[in-house]
Amino acid sequence: MKRRLLYASSQAYQPAMLVQGRNVGWLEAPFVVRRETALGQRQIDQALVGRTAEGVVVAFRGSLPPFFGSAHDGWDVVLDWLNDAFSLCIEDSHYGGGVHFGFAESMRRLWSDAGSGPGVRTAIQAMLDQSLLDRKARRHIFVTGHSKGGALANLAAMRAASVGEWSDVPVSVATIAAARAGNADFAASYDRTRIACLRYEMPGDVVPHLPLSPNTPGWARKIARGVFPKLATGDYRPVGLLVTPPPAVKAGHQAWVGSRRPVKRLLDRRGIGLEALTPAILTAHAICPGSGYDRLICDGESLCDHGEGRARKRA
Question: Domain spanning 2-247: which CATH class is it, in words?
Fold first, then answer.
């Protein structure tokens, strides 16, 4: 299931695109929730809500990638990244602590119904009701997302866990390279809920260390300030059980994509700018087939070959 949540996180970027061998297991086509910003008809917030045999899956899209073609123009990308940069920590009663302003606004738009259609909450309820009728899916809510989508997944899980009608429904979360959604108070409130959360992070990925905090590693802080020179230090904390490569991989005994070593070597070289780091940063953050996260999420499963068998068959 955790691997199929990775596939759902990937599909959240392009809902109509199905990648061979990366089947989420939808019982029917997932419902797409899209929301526009207050600045006009710019849809920078998106989520998939669908049913699998294991339960309802909610997958939030991460930030729009700036270097790859899509249906979104440059202004969509700019507005989405500005939303990420609105890292002012605000108190919100839904979350029991301070949360990222931009992420909280995205969740507010996606969670509730709007003129453009039902929100995530209504879609989940409809699918839970359908499952009571046809018995094709269990009463279980799985929430996932990559990058910004991982932060939204944590906020959505907090909201789902507080819905009275869903008090008997387990809430499970798998975040992939998630940005941090809130401060220490938020993290403490999160830990007190019934949410079961796995947090997947590769050592060389800077995004899970953002927004910055006093505990952010120096190498990640250096990259972040190269992107946003005036980025303020906050007190953002991660949530969930950390899953990262085993010590042998961290020590460099196995060449995994996303290792911190290439990034650190570039940072230590004088005259190296952010443009030289960009390929390593993007590679460490990727969730495509063969990426570090693709391998990490099924590490230790004896029946999983990380897709290599399918690749050999196609060859």
Answer: alpha beta
